[in-house]
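User: Fold this; tokens only.

Assistant: Input:
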Amino acid sequence: MNYKDFGLVNTKKMFINAMRHGYAVPAFNFYNLETLKSILVAAKNTKSPVILAVSESALKYMGDDFLMGMIIGAKIKSKNIALHLDHGHSFESCKHAIDLGFSSVMFDGSELPFAENVKQTKRVVAYAKKFDVSVEAELGTLSGIEDEDTKSEKHIYTDPLDVIEFVSKTSCDSLAIAIGTSHGAYKRKNENEKLRFDILKQIADKLPNFPLVLHGASEIPQNLLKTINKNGGKIVGALGIPASQIKKAVSMNICKVNVDSDARLAFTSAVRENLNKNPENFDPRKFLTAAMNEITKTYIYEITKVMNSAHK
């Protein structure tokens, strides 16, 4: 199936508009009906473009037919919604997503040697171009754990000296870079850690008007952690990326920002609190509705206060 049959678009015009008008397109991960609906409601209420991101493990969890069935059921008619494979680790994974009807894929060759990363990214780009699908590549390695398929104990900053060669040789449409963000809820060891804006500036200077992407950019709201821990959870020492730093990055050519952990925390906090306050309840619709409302609220905040993509 072609993504246009589902009312989806690729990310090329999205990113052009984002760079031209100084905002970032939010890429929100989903893995079930509730998280998908929350993203779509937040985007509709704010009139924001949005990228529906699906990791390899989320695709396995939902299954091809159920995932695309939800996309069909959503009846997407907006010109500003893309369906994106997040962290595809092989050509086969990216090809599979394109064949399903994804409008954008990320090939994550960040763990590969430079030459091999170039080679495999080029292969994905060549296939994707047949279907007018956008390709995001990654240079540099983010530490942390996003899911079972995307994790690393090391952090390697993107080398600004490599970016021109990488982009020119691969013809990728956007580039995810490593400047200090990380996957998961434990992004910083202390409040004083800052993103490497010096590296971002060097990259942006070398690639003017080229779409740059920031992964691992969840804020990890402390109020959600408090709610979780107050209602039986045990998440200690989690620190995210302050909104002020993300906003600064957006002003420096970052036109796509990936957020996942914030939604997981919002979902969990709402479910824990709802069940704790209503111990007699055994109707999942009630606590799942609470979870959707909390995710939607979190994403509306991200769209309006961090990425500045509302009404775009």
